[in-house]
Specification:
heterodimer; A: 430 residues; alpha/beta; TIM Barrel; 8-stranded parallel beta barrel; 3-stranded antiparallel sheet; 15 strands; B: 382 residues; mainly beta; Jelly Rolls; 2 domains; 6-stranded antiparallel sheet; 1 helix; elongated
Amino acid sequence: MRSKIAGYRRFLLVACGFLPVFFLSACCTPKGVYIQKMKNRSYRLMVNGKPYIVKGVCYNPIPVGKNHEYDWWGDPNKPWIVDGKLMKEMGVNTVRIYQVNEDPQKVKQVIGDLYNLYGIRTLLGDWLGFWEYPCPFYGDKKFQEKVTQHVLEMVRLYKDEPGVLGWILGNENNYSCLGHVNPWSSPEVDKEPDPQKQKNIRAKIYYSFVNEISKQVHQIDSNHPVGLGNGELVGLDSAAKFCQDVDFVACIIYRGKTFGNLFKSLQMTFDKPLLLAEFGADCYDAYLKKEDQNMQAFFLQSQWSQIYENLAGNKKGAGNCLGGTIFEWTDEWWKHNSDYPEGWAQHDTQSSWSNGSYYYDIRAEGNKNMNEEWFGIVALSPQLEPATAPGAAESINKRIPRKAYYVIREFWKNPNYDARHKKKSSRGKK
Amino acid sequence: MKKLLVVLMALALLSPVMAGAEDKAAGPKEFVVYLDKNAKDNHYIPSGWMGDYGDIKMNDQAAENPHTGTSSIQFVYSAKKSQTQGWAGVYWQNPANNWGNKKGGFDLTGMTKLTFWARGAKGGEVIQKVMVGGIKGTYPDSAMIEMGPIELTNTWKQYTVNLVGKDLSYLNGAFGWTITSDMNPDGATFYIDDIKFEADPDLKPEGKKAQGMPFYVYADRSSVVNHFIPSGWMGDYGDLKFESSSKEDPYLGDTCIKIAYSGKATQGARWAGIFWQNPANNWGSVDAGYDLSKATKLTFWARGAKGGERIEEFKVGGIMGEFSDSDSATIGPVLLNKEWTQYTIDLKGKDMSYIIGGFAWSANVDNNPDGATFYLDEIKFE
């Protein structure tokens, strides 16, 4: 009996000796979301101490018959519940939202539901006033202050939500520095007669402004990284000088089946980790004038192969890619003409722009082959799902996953799988 | 013993036959296109006359100094632009005049090269390119291989087109050549002989090699070192007039490029531009990129007729298609001076390993309400 008690006491003593170790290690396990810099200028995203590959989608569930002004956050049928389930089954772990709703309760509901029910984290963004009328006056101090406060308010409101993954500032705002989209100017720019130097001055103003916001975000929130939204790599030579306080670059890239030199080029120009924040392919063949899900699946699989080639630890690539958010989760039927309400209930098949790297249908009339209303990897049906909200008469549009949904699902399960083996074995079966 | 002798004799008699059978099973070592006029081994007909066909005269039994046999084929190109094209060429086809609308051709699987002998009457004649395959249509050739430009000498020289690894299962357009008035402003007379496909088992496939520097886009109108064709007219193409042989104060050499942009928005686009492409009109559908990975910059000289003309962009690369350019680089907007000024597009850090779109410019009406006339010269990668 004495020996038993003594043995028990010895056990307790030893166990107590280990307790501080357990406590210390629990404290030292990094919390929050951060970017880890590794050897050879490679980077990876860490979430609560574990590597995290962003396998995401851009999310804007506008129903058939509505346009971008529709408040889906307040939809009583909660489309994110149906979508989140489908996303989880696919393997999606992140959604990207371009701009949060003005109602914090609604935003917290969406972020919370996606995370708590499905483990899906959210990248929250802000347009930085890009769509303000008449133009974004990035050279104006009052405008800058207004935009900065809008961003900081978002950060204060949601930084403690467990489902938040990070912040993305802007989208393709950099094109405004070239004068291509939403052009703006300022007295400093107007004084310069050389148009190339004017472009450089605008870039300096814009990227310095984003850098300042980024610094202030870091002061409020040290637990989430801040991304610079950027169209292509345009202007990043200026970002390298004036925007070093961002943590990653969130690029919008439409280059067809491969991203080409994107990853190494970013490494050379602006050595920051890269998130493919918007990329993908539409599924309407503008030349044959019919839906082509195989075409979309082909481009998306090829793009994801390249993303994985360029993750940290893969010697084949640059090692600076954090993953991507596909454009987009569902079709948006309003996009071809946002000012024509009758068109929002039609799945418009007109193409609005041309991109030769999506070469399957480049022979379409006028070479216009990009169909804005057909980028979803999940199609919407005019038919509705059964109503879920108590007392609601209507529900959400039925979701019909496209081939790309399944192809990417399988790719994520086994990204090292060599498709050539599959072809050989199918020949063998014949 | 007798039986053994009979067997041995039978083997001795049969072995040449078996060897011959093996040879047959190995396949032919060559496939002749042209040896001599009326040679029984000839295949294909030089019937596919292209471009300024009125500028071509052909004599397929030229007796003057053939390479072998009694004759060679003489071509006389006048460069008079009879059909206003500025170029001409001939395809050898099977059957004659088959532009891919009928089944014909030959299966030349197993051949690894096409060889031919050529000389110029004087030396210095420039063949823009020679082709194997490349005819499209309902029955398209299974491959297209090009080589050139070739500057001929006045003595016979053999040329080889490497076909290793190419799909030669259907070739209607066996061999062809093209010539341009820019490269031969006074015309050209040249001779071709002994055209044949050969099976050379030791020949290795031609890998893409990095081009040496400098690599010219444009030196002078008739320069053999020019590459890419200013074929990609964009936007309001009706607003453009293009001269590759302007003698108006070239920066260097005899000629420069003169571009007149009217700004009238003829096609309603309100902008216009030109892409230099390889080959002509290649928007990324043809696998023909140059490896320019040794280039650290592209330089060119430009001036405006009046000064102040605004070019929105000068560009290298950026063509997207099934065979996309590996990268792109731009400068602009640029306000041109009246005097020649050199501009540089920095390519450091860019992936120039595969370039179809060698050079481009674009301008718009908003910044050139009265249009713009400007000049370019000495465009080169270095």
